[in-house]
Each structure stands twice: as structure tokens, then as C-alpha cells.
Amino acid sequence: MITNKHTIEIEQFNQQTGQAFDNPVVAPTITSSGQSKPPGSGVETIFTGLIQYFKDSASWEGQITEALAQLVRTTEKASEKSGETTTQLEHLESLIGRQTTACNAVQAACVRLESSLAKAVSIGAAQAHNLEQIRIQGDSLSRSFEKLSHDVIEREVIDPVLTEFTLLYEKILVLVASTQSERMELQYLLQHITDFLGGYGVQIIHPLEGERFDPRKHQPVMQLPTHEKAKHGSIAGTLNAGLAREHRVVKPARVEIFSFSSLESANCSSR
After folding, report:
1. Strand 218-226 versus strand 29-30 pairing type
2. Of the residues 17, 167, 206, 269, which has the fewest C-beta atoms closer than 10 A?
3. Element (DSSP H or E) covering residue 12
4. Is residue 89 domain-shared with residue 162, that is, in the same domain?
5. Which residues are 190's β-sheet partners?
6. Per the domain annotation, does 135 fall within a domain?
7. Of the candidates 76, 95, 114, which is a domain's last residue?
8. Burial class (CB in 10 A: 0-12, 13-18, 19+), 209
9. Is residue 207 part of a domain?
10. Whether residue 162 sits in one domain with residue 91
11. What is the pLDDT of residues 121-155, one digit of tens each?
12. Residues 6+ apart with CB under 8 A from 225
């Protein structure tokens, strides 16, 4: 290793060498016997300095060689540590790669789970809607069945019974017209039947002569000619009484209708 001391020696050697070449004649030297020795040339001085320089250079070379060897050893150790570090880094990269793969797999599983949950929620909502629709349809069917049952009972059971009451009313009415002795009792019986049916919302349809024809309650069976224009279209007579219950006509009354015809048209038809 080159130190500051060696640097100073090199500078001194350069100075001596330069002086030798600049001043070729030097002062005489004194020998050990006391005699003067003629002065030497500057070349001798140069060679003397060179020899000393080479001696110092050998010492420097050994130091430099040792320093280089130490540097090589340090470099080798650093290389070994660098290799170990590289191996550790590769192992760490492998671990990170495996962790990244695992994380990607977990993320994909989460995405699939989220999709499955969304489908399950959608299916649940659809099933809830279907159940609600089934409940509504069930309620509607229940009400329809109740109404149908009520209508069937009314039409198939109650209406025939009430119709029989109407027939009984007609027969009593005929008896009232033909019997003079028991007319009061028969009229009382008719009134009793009328009141009994009225208590259940039932009305007997028995229009009198001259009432206006109502197509909802009356069924025309025959036409009775008349020369009075005012009677045209009115009731001429009731053949069979009808029956109405709670604004529903169970059986219309069978009636005769007046039909106006003038005398001229009657004479023409007779001719």
C-alpha cells in the first residue's frame, strides 16, 4: 500500500534526479584517509538514486501484492455473500409467487361465491314472488269457490223452493178468483206468503193490467190487440207470476202485452 512517506521519497528522488541533470558537476568529496576525491559525475548520483528507488519499489510491490490479495479475498467473500443473497432472493421470489397464486385462487373463489350468492338471492326473490302470486291466486280461488258455492246453493236449492212458493201463490190466486165464500181466508194466505218471502229478500213479480212492460222482469208470451193507442206495450194480463231476489230476477213473469191496431188496419185485414 503506497503511503505518504513513499510519496515524499519519490518527490525527493525526482528532485535529486533533476538537479543531477541540471548540474552535472558537483563538489569534491573527502575520503577516509583525509584526501580529497575528485567530484563524480551526475550520472553516478542518478544510478545511486535509481538503486535506492528500486529497493523501495520492491517493498511497495510486496505491499501492493498483499493489498491486491486481500482485495481478492474480500471480493470472493462478497461474491459468496452475493450468491447466498441471490439464492435467498430467488427463494423469496418463489414464495411470493406461490402466495400470489394462492391469493389469485382465493380471489377467484370469492368471485364465484359472490356470483352464486347473487344467483341464490335472485332465485329466492323469484320464488318469493311466485309464492305471493300463488297466495293471491289461492285467495281469489277461495273467494270464487265461496261465491260459486253460494250461487249454486241459491240457484239449485233455494230458487226451486221459492219457485214452488210462486206456484202456490198462483194457485191460491186462482182460488180467490173462483171462490166467493173463502176469499178472505185465501187473501190472508196470499198476504202471509208474500210477507214470508219478503222477509228473505224475495219479491213475487205479478204485474197488474195496465202496468208498463219491463223486459228485465217480464217475459211476453202473447199479444192482445187493442184499439186504444195509450195501452200499446202495457201489460194486458199475467199468465204466470215471476220471482226476484235481491235485485236478481230468478224467474220472469209470463205476461200478455197490448198491441195497438187501428180500425182501418183491422178492416183491411178482415177484407
Report:
1. unpaired
2. 269
3. helix 4-22
4. no
5. none
6. no
7. 95
8. middle
9. yes
10. no
11. 888 888 888 888 888 888 887 777 677 666 777 77
12. 258, 259, 260, 261, 266
Residues 72 and 165 in one domain: no
Establish if 101 belongs to a structural domain. Answer: no
- The Cα–Cα gap between 257 and 265 comes to 19
Do 162 and 250 touch, CB atoms closer than 8 A? Answer: yes
Of 65, 16, 44, whose CA–CA distance to 57 is shortest? 65
Q: What is the pLDDT of residues 157-178, one digit of tens each?
A: 677 777 777 777 777 777 777 7
The DSSP call for residue 156 is I
Amino acid occupying residue 215: P
What mean pLDDT is reported for the chain?
Answer: 76
259 three-class SS: strand
Domain of residue 190, CATH code: 2.30.22.10
Of 79, 95, 111, at which residue does a domain stop? 95
More confident position, 212 or 198: 212
Residue 265, CB-side half-sphere exposure with 13 Å CA sphere? 7
Q: Which residue has the cell 206456484?
A: 167
Classify residue 103: in a domain, yes or no.
no
Evaluate whether 224 touches 259 at the Cβ level (below 8 Å). Answer: yes
Helix axes of 159-178 and 183-198: crossing angle, nearest 10 degrees: 160
CA 50 to chain CA mean position, Å: 99
The C-alpha cell at 115 is 356470483
Instruction: Take residue 27 and report the three cell numbers written for it.
Output: 563538489
The whole-angstrom separation of Cα 174 and Cα 41 is 189
Tally of structural domains, the chain: 2
Quote the radius of gyration of the chain (alpha carbons, Å): 72
- Whether 163 and 266 share a structural domain: yes
Sign of the four-CA dihedral 191, 196, 201, 202: negative
C-alpha cell at 51: 538503486
